[in-house]
Amino acid sequence: MKPSPRSHLYRLLLVLAVAGAGFVGLRQLAIPDSWDEEHWYRGDALDELAAQPSRFGGNASCEGSSCHEPPANHKANYDALSQGLHAGVACESCHGPLARHAADGEKLDHARLNVANELCLGCHQELIARPQNFPQFSETLLYHELLNVRETSPCRACHNPHEPA
Amino acid sequence: MKQPETNGRRVFLSKLLGGGVAAAGALMGLRAPALAKVLEGPDEGFDPGEHDYVFVVDIQKCIGCGNCVRACGIENNVPEGQFRTWIERYVVTHEGVHVDSPEGGMNGFEAIDPALREQAINAFFVPKLCNHCAEAPCVQVCPVGATFTSPEGFVLVDPEHCIGCGYCIQACPYGVRFMNKERRVADKCTWCYHRIRRGQQPACVTVCPTGSRSFGDTRDENDPVAQILKDDQWDVLKPGMHTQCQVLYVGLPRVVV
């Protein structure tokens, strides 16, 4: 039997059909199930990103808490802080992330601070770019001069970080 | 007669499977449900269509302490040496402008060179972060749709979908994007999307001691950021880029780029 005179066309059509089916199939595999055609993103990504755990709990976790009443002084420190000059400073600004501690009672080494002056100077070191009205450490301040306070002196000897003055 | 297997491969594999399931169950049980809700799960009652967020940076309040940079790194597991947010120190003189940002300001700033200090006519700190542009160039150039604008207006990166081509990093006019050297995908500030969904503030806002950074919903009239919009005394970085930044700067000197 002689081959059909149009067999080269049939073969071409077959190749095109296979290529087309392959393209559609691969495309289906490549597009994520939750793809948002209108806004062009993977819909599941939002909940996946939102599932990231929080490490900073914010002051809301400590507010009104009865934890660490005397002798641990936790509540006293919190109350003093929220009334004094450091009122806007969050617990975690100095003590580091405490979300797990507040939610779970996890013991945290980094929360216990034992600092002489580095922590205070982190904010109060005299720097030209700091706002003029922001209190900045100076050895030439009258009281500092009278008491011979140097930059290396322990601030806590006179100042209470929870109730600064 | 065939003896039942006691030490065969099949027995070993079935024991392995059983042990694995038991261990996984025990580990899941360790997580207190209350903790998981507060710290790990998204808030079910969150409606994305009801919010219109902006981030406000008050230049006149920033003291360059670096709390925000450290907190961001901890909260978001940012690799060492890379930054989702950072602080720049500007020192303006008649001869020119000096800008530095040692380690992104993570450990604060040292005193400047005394000669430079003599010449300084103005100096201030500028915190920087992703501007979450309403018309974001990074979203336009992403070839796979891995960086996108969420229904709430956050510009986010889908790390599972990103192919790491880096186009978005080149497209960002503000240089806030980087290639995460551990995950090998594009990374940037998310405004702590996971925290906002739970009703918390971004980590940097939480720890800022002077209130230089604030974040809020402009649709809520009681929100402090609504007052800033009312005062209408804010600027954005590079307004000529027409990207419609949603990070607003209060007291921004014109020299800042």
Share in β-strands of chain A: under 5%
Portion of residues within helices of chain B: 25-40%
Looking at the structure, what is the overall shape of chain A? elongated
The helix-and-strand class of chain B reads alpha+beta
Contiguous runs where pLDDT drops below 50 for at least 5 residues of chain B: 25-37
Q: From the alpha-carbon coordinates, what is the Rg of chain B to the nearest angstrom? A: 24 Å
- Let me know the largest β-sheet of chain A: 2 strands, antiparallel
Binned, the helix content of chain A reads: 25-40%
Number of strand elements of chain A: 2
Q: Which value, in Å, is the CA radius of gyration of chain A?
A: 33 Å
Number of strands of chain B: 11
Strand line-up of the largest beta sheet of chain A: 1-2
Question: Can you count the helices of chain A?
Answer: 7
Order of helices and strands of chain B: HHEHEEHEHEEHEEHHEHEE
Based on CA inertia axes, which overall geometry of chain B fits? globular
Unreliable residue runs of chain A: none
Element-by-element helix/strand order of chain A: HEEHHHHHH
Task: Please provide a written account of the structure.
The complex is a heterodimer of chains A (about 160) and B (about 260). Chain A is an all-alpha fold and about 160 residues long. Helices cover about 40% and strands about 0% of the residues of chain A. Chain A has 7 helices and 2 strands; from the N terminus they run αββαααααα. A two-stranded antiparallel ribbon of chain A has the order 1-2. The relative contact order of chain A is 0.09. The model of chain A has no long low-confidence stretch (mean pLDDT about 90). Chain B is of the alpha+beta class and about 260 residues long. A 4-stranded mixed sheet of chain B has the order 9-1-11-10, with helices on one face. A 3-stranded antiparallel sheet of chain B has the order 3-2-4. A two-stranded antiparallel sheet of chain B has the order 5-6. Chain B is globular. Chains A and B meet through strand 2, helix 2 and helix 5 of A and helix 2, helix 3, strand 2, strand 4 and helix 7 of B.
